[in-house]
């Protein structure tokens, strides 16, 4: 006996068992938050095996398996002589193989070390079985069987079979399902429920009856189980979140099961919805959807492509991670940072007028200017000029650094930040945008998105982007944007105003974006062509916006609103000064607004440090008490009276009501005591074009109508803007002919070097 043990140890070391952990038998699978497969990756031999622990398998399956296959499994040493003898007698008597005498341990030995059907092969199986029983306990052997037993085709293991044929975990099996999977390995091809449903059902019923005969299950339970029909399933490997699964697998450190945070029910619903939506878009286009739970930063849905298997749509490209131009989606951040800096409040007076910053002359998306706009209105309408102006005042380098510190790194052509980034002149990804937008629901804080369940066990690391106050104000403003028409007529569960959202469109209609924020979720969509070519006619509000609300409608959002911080209050303010109504004279409060203010601070309309074109505020002058006309301070006429009046920025003159313009508010010079030094402005006027004029061709073959661009007054070179686009630069007292080749409304603006401007609108038919 003492001699045999060393020999056994030597043989065991020379011929080790081919255990699963040694040869990595398992396929690799990425699962959702409830451990349901999202996507599976076969092993090197193309076999699908999903690892599962013994305690994770339904006890019903264990009962059915043990009592049908090997009743004495827990007691025999791996080999059951009585079973072998019985099988031998039956096979000889019938002159064919009627039954096998293999125990579960013997079946595991054959799986680990396949052999030919011969006496020598059977002998090797018996030796390997004894070796198996010597090295492992019964539970370990049973667990190997659960993970490696053949279930038809390339499917091995009960967990893989359960998901394949029943679309559920082996932990959730019914009595009938447990019996079906218990018998399936006996004849994996003949009993496959997706190919031979009736044969599978007959075999299952045989197992059920035997369990009654052995008093394992009651007759009434089996009677109910017999009523369940075995359906012919069409198996197709899971392809939910295929791009995310591939991404997570590449960072899984060889794990067989990668547990993600995805909600597969939501993922499937959004994937089906997107497939339907894409039927109305060009064939070469794609889309991406990302849904994040704000509280945990867990990603709940991740669709990186519209059609993973479609080459025309570049389905293999993950557009959640792709770097693209964000269009106007960065604008909320500059408004939020400007609030924190004390530059504006929600109703600050901004100017949507022609402006240039060196050689940079942006225009609005709709090709027109709107004059005086509130900060809230400018953000909600996504006007370009106020956003660029805000960025210049805040500091472009500072803005880029603040975003980067919070985790949003911009890819900037040439590497040097410039004003164009606020309109999409940089690159970022849907992932980074959604992560950053979550700050509007998380008191201004950003935390890295979480894709794995194990990450949820770690402390959440946050970075500051905005204050809680400015974050709330911005989301409140974005929640005021009207919802577009829903894709589905029944999708009406989302209450109006419950989601703050912003769209964006990159230059040349290459990218359409929509990002939304609620108390519970931050979600984003992207539409476009992965190859970067244009999609004319498709932009954020008409293409991405409806899809965003389609996604939101499937989230079952609550009616809860994001809590307003105590330091945010409402205040009545007056234009043009932008300060509290209580601090203004009645005559100076020309327009009233209800503004959100932070920490009881009301920044006035800019006027102290701006160029002459922006000069506004209280205009102080001396007047003749008798004539009410303006005089110079050193005028010898006595007595003189000092007066002041609130004036608007010069650049806004063409857009404001006539009664609020400077020539109406500031008296003319008294000819008895005038000085050229007190001229309020050099007036600028378009001549030769009447407001509201209609132009048309003189017949079908007539010439295209034209107008002569002429103006009087002003200082320096005159810049002309046609429908928001800088078109001409003309010297004083000169004119330029402009062809009216575009049908419809035409907005014509002239502006001098001091910001004086004038505007006319005409119509071309």
Keywords:
single chain, 765 residues, alpha+beta, Penicillin binding protein transpeptidase fold, Immunoglobulin-like, 5-stranded antiparallel sheet, 5-stranded mixed sheet, 26 strands, elongated
- CATH topology-level name of the domain at 5-227: Penicillin binding protein transpeptidase fold
Low-confidence stretches: 486-497, 607-612, 677-681
Per CATH, the superfamily of the domain at 5-227 is Biosynthetic peptidoglycan transglycosylase-like
* Straight-line N-to-C gap: 111 Å
| Percent range for β-strand residues | 15-25%
Task: Give the % helix.
Answer: 25-40%
- Rg for CA atoms: 38 Å
CATH class of the domain at 5-227: Mainly Alpha
Outline, from the CA principal axes?
elongated
Biggest sheet: strands side by side, in what order? 5-4-12-11-10
User: What is the CATH architecture term of the domain at 5-227?
Assistant: Orthogonal Bundle
Q: Helical stretch count?
A: 21
Mean pLDDT reading = 86
Query: What is the makeup of the main sheet?
Result: 5 strands, antiparallel
Describe the protein in words.
The chain has 765 residues and is an alpha+beta fold. The chain contains 21 helices and 26 strands. One of its GO terms (biological process) is proteolysis.
Task: Describe the structure concisely.
It comes from Colwellia demingiae. By secondary structure, this protein is α+β, with helices and mostly antiparallel strands.
């Amino acid at each position: 006996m003492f001699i045999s043990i060393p020999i056994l140890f030597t043989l065991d070391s020379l011929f080790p068992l081919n255990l699963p952990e040694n040869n990595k038998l398992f396929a690799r699978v990425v699962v959702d938050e409830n451990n349901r497969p999202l996507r599976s990756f076969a092993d090197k031999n193309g076999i699908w095996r999903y690892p599962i622990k013994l305690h994770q398998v339904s006890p019903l399956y264990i009962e059915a398996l043990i009592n049908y296959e090997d009743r004495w499994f827990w007691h025999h040493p791996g080999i059951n002589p009585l079973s072998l003898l019985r099988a031998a007698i039956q096979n000889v008597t019938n002159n064919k193989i009627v039954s096998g005498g293999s125990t579960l341990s013997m079946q595991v030995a054959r799986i680990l070390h396949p052999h030919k059907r011969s006496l020598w092969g059977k002998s090797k199986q018996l030796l390997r079985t004894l070796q198996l029983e010597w090295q492992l306990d019964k539970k370990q052997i049973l667990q190997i069987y659960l993970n490696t037993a053949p279930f038809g085709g390339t499917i091995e293991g009960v967990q893989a079979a359960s998901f394949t044929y029943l679309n559920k975990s082996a932990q959730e099996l019914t009595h009938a399902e447990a019996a079906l999977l218990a018998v399936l390995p006996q004849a994996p091809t003949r009993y496959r429920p997706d190919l031979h449903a009736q044969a599978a059902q007959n075999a299952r019923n045989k197992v059920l009856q035997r369990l009654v005969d052995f008093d394992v299950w009651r007759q009434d339970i089996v009677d109910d189980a017999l009523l369940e029909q075995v359906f012919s399933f069409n198996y197709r490997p899971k392809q939910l979140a295929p791009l995310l699964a591939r991404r997570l697998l590449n960072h899984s450190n060889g794990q067989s099961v990668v547990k993600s945070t995805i909600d597969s029910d939501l993922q499937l619903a959004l994937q089906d919805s997107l497939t339907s939506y894409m039927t109305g878009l060009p064939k070469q286009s794609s889309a991406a959807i990302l849904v994040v739970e704000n509280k945990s930063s867990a990603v709940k849905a991740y669709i990186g492509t519209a059609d993973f298997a479609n080459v025309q749509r570049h389905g293999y490209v993950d557009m959640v991670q792709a770097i693209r131009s964000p269009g106007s989606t960065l604008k909320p951040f500059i408004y939020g940072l400007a609030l924190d800096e004390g530059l504006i409040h929600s109703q600050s007076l901004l100017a949507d007028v022609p402006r240039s910053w060196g050689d940079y002359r942006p225009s609005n998306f709709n090709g027109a200017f709107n004059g005086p706009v509130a900060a809230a209105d400018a953000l909600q309408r996504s006007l370009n000029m106020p956003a660029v102006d805000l960025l210049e005042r805040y500091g472009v380098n500072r803005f880029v650094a603040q975003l980067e510190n919070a985790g949003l790194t911009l890819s900037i052509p040439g590497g040097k930040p410039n004003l164009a980034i606020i309109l999409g002149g940089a690159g970022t990804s849907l992932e980074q945008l959604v992560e950053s937008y979550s700050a509007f629901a998380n008191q201004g804080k950003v935390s890295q998105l979480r894709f794995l369940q194990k990450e949820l066990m770690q402390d959440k690391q946050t970075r500051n982007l905005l204050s809680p106050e400015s974050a709330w104000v911005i989301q409140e403003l974005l929640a005021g944007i009207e919802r577009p028409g829903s894709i589905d007529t029944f999708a009406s569960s989302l209450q109006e105003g419950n989601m703050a959202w912003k769209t964006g469109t990159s230059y040349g209609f290459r990218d359409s974006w929509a990002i939304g924020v609620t108390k519970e979720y931050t979600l984003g969509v992207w539409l476009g062509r992965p190859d970067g070519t244009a999609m004319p006619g498709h932009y954020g509000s008409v293409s991405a916006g409806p899809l965003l609300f389609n996604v939101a409608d499937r989230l079952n959002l609550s009616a809860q609103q994001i809590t307003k911080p105590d330091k945010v209050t409402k205040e009545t303010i007056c234009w043009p000064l932008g300060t509290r109504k209580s601090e203004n004279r009645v005559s100076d409060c020309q327009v009233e607004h209800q503004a959100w203010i932070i920490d009881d601070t009301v920044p006035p309309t800019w006027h102290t440090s701006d160029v002459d074109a922006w000069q506004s505020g209280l205009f102080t002058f001396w007047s003749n008490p008798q004539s009410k006309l303006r005089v110079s301070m050193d005028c010898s006429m006595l007595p003189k009276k000092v007066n002041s009046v609130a004036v608007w920025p010069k650049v806004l003159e063409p857009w404001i009501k006539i009664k609020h313009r400077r020539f109406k508010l500031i008296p003319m010079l008294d000819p008895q005591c005038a000085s050229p030094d007190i001229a309020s402005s050099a007036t600028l006027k378009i001549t030769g074009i009447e407001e509201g004029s209609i132009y048309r061709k003189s017949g079908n073959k007539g010439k295209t109508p034209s107008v002569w661009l002429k103006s009087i007054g002003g200082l320096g070179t005159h810049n002309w803007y046609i429908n928001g686009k800088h078109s001409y630069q003309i010297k004083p007292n000169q004119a330029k002919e402009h062809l009216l080749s575009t049908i419809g409304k035409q907005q014509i603006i002239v502006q001098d070097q001091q910001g004086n401007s004038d505007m006319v609108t005409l119509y071309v038919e």
